[in-house]
What we know:
LysR_subst-bd, 3 domains, LysR family transcriptional regulator, 42% helix, 22% strand
Amino acid sequence: MTLQQLRYATMVAQTGTITEAAKKLYITQPSLTNAIHDLEKEMNIVIFNRTNKGITLSKEGEDFLGYARQVLEQADILEDKYKNGTGGKKQFCISTQHYSFAVNAFVDLIKEYGQDEYDFSIRETQTYEIIEDVARMRSEIGILFFNDFNEVVLTKILKSYDLEFHQLFVAKPHVFISRKHPLAENKVITNEELQSYPYLSFEQGEHNSFYFSEEIFSETERKKNIRVRDRATLFNLLIGLNGYTVCSGVIDKKLNGKDIISVPLADEGDMRIGYITHKKEMLSHLAQTYLTAIKKYLS
């Protein structure tokens, strides 16, 4: 077993395909396939299940790669210390719901650790994809929220993937609206006051369930609903249509613009925002630094 084989296996798990992994590793597909086969044979395990539809990470493969990532992290630390401080290209990936503090912390991480070469990724994506990314070890960290409505369902899903939730902070639900919105002067806004305005939310694809929503589920019926995929579109519609969305209340003028404000929403439960990790994986130094940066924006 070599470090190279471990890097090959983790890249296949991260990309989900031999083809994409070979491209990123700058080797041929047959070479990568043979390396994975040799590793499995030597360790007497099946890391990847092969089917006509492609490959998937096996249960014992998830466990094995959890340990492999720890080995690779320690190897990177050694390289950082003894290879003239270069350490090679650093890699790090997170998946998150659409939170400005997650982006700001990512910027801080790159400013601190961005050397001449690095390969960092931040995926603002759908809730179920966040869970899958961490489960398949494409991302070290996934950021999402729990509340009384979704906690039982999401906890069950996380448990089935050997994932665990770590709370960062508790937020009171707020409404994001345009500074020129008719309700902008309100100290608090109720669901009843919002009924005549378009409700904007992030669509969740095949898993467009209330349990996977990024926004607080409300028993109050919303007559006008618009679903979008990206942050810029949502904010443009907030301004152009006097729409609104429900969020944590953490707002950043540099990312969200000066025309968007946050107003407390009445009569809704708390949002417990946190991050998920794989139980079998030890967080890297980059991940720990990223979490420290996040907490700075929440203090």
